[in-house]
Fold this protein.
Amino acid sequence: MQQSMQVTNRLFEQEVVAKRNIDALDRVYTAAARILPPGAEMVNGRENIKAFWRGAIEALNVAACRLETVDVELIGDTAYEIGRATIEFATAGAAPLVGKYVVIWKREGGAWKWAVDIWNPSA
């Protein structure tokens, strides 16, 4: 299971963020996923999540993202992951943003995907 989760996390880093391939989110989030971005309303459903990430990556000029798993707990067909994220920007002189996240994972179509995703910057 953890190996499958790492594959999904690398997909987010390498396809979604680095290549701006927003359609790859179909393989990251469940169809009924929810995200809870800091300082913003909850976003429901994969298509709305795709619109959110498309806008956020472009508006913030995100160049790269690294996800680091700190802890994972499996509970039946659900798992939760606690981790750290580092976001780098393509804007000259912009300092990386370091944050923390919790993802609730669910199995969908034989794959582990993000069902609930919440994050915020580290102080």
About this structure: The first strand starts at residue 29 and ends at 36. The chain has one domain: 2-121. Strands lie at 29-36, 43-44, 62-75, 78-89, 97-108, 111-121.
